[in-house]
Write a structure and sequence with these properties.
Pfam family, one: TetR_N
Organism: Neoaquamicrobium microcysteis
CATH superfamily of one domain: Tetracycline Repressor, domain 2
Keywords: DNA-binding
GO molecular function, one term: DNA binding
CATH class of one domain: Mainly Alpha
CATH topology of one domain: Tetracycline Repressor, domain 2
Number of helices: 11
CATH architecture of one domain: Orthogonal Bundle
Protein name: TetR/AcrR family transcriptional regulator
């Protein structure tokens, strides 16, 4: 009569994430790199799962599907830049210094977060289709306009900024100067035979961006 074999005690327990928030954030950051590199259509969930030591099933559990993951990654990218702006604490600074710090932060953030720029470029290819589905991105970016509007308003009241400018358009100008530095750096460098990404070039372009914005708003 055959005996029933006892259950193996050395069998590995089922692996469950001990830090679900950390797991989700790891997946988001890895997915952002994958989407930035390959776009929405080219990104592979298998690759994201392998790099995060998770599973496709877990990713779909957290985010629904690939489009859901893409949208959450896009929201996370915008949240990161807006949180960085909030940490600047410009309320106690004179308006000129506050605007200088905001432009410097924007330039540095875009330079250091190239995946954010590429994801925004990809979303523009999709004509903002997925961004429009988001319940949070619009609210996140309202704070960016509120921030620059507050600095500008104080500058006008103190007589150092000229009146009549639209804070939304001012935000556009700051973003354009800082965004182009990443989005077109490679092609610009190849076309004109100068590496715009060197430390010296980046320092000068950062200083130029600040100077152009301050001169644009100056009352003098």
């Amino acid at each position: 009569m055959s005996q029933v074999k006892p259950a193996r005690k050395d069998r590995e327990p089922s692996k469950r994430p001990q830090d679900p928030d950390g797991t989700r954030q790891d997946i988001l950051e890895t997915a952002s790199r994958e989407f930035a590199l390959n776009g929405l259509s080219g990104a592979r969930i298998d690759e994201i799962a392998a790099r995060t030591k998770s599973s496709k099933r877990m990713i779909y559990y957290y985010f629904g599907d690939k489009e859901g993951l893409y949208l959450r990654a896009l929201e996370n990218a915008y949240r990161t830049v807006r949180e960085g702006e909030d940490d600047l604490d410009t309320d106690g600074l004179p308006p000129v210094e506050a605007l200088r710090r905001l432009v410097e932060f924007t330039f540095d953030h875009h330079h250091e977060h190239e995946d954010f720029i590429r994801m925004v470029m990809i979303e523009n290819i999709h004509h903002g289709e997925y961004l429009e589905r988001s319940d949070v991105i619009s609210g996140l970016n309202v704070t960016a306009i509120d921030h620059i509007a507050s600095i500008y308003r104080r500058g006008v009241e103190e007589g150092v900024f000229r009146p009549g400018l639209d804070p939304l358009e001012l935000h556009w100008q700051v973003s354009a100067l800082c965004f182009f530095n990443v989005s077109n750096r490679a092609t610009f460098s190849k076309i004109f035979g100068r590496d715009i990404g060197t430390t010296d070039h980046q320092r000068r372009l950062r200083d130029n961006a600040v100077e152009m914005i301050l001169k644009f708003v100056s009352a003098g």
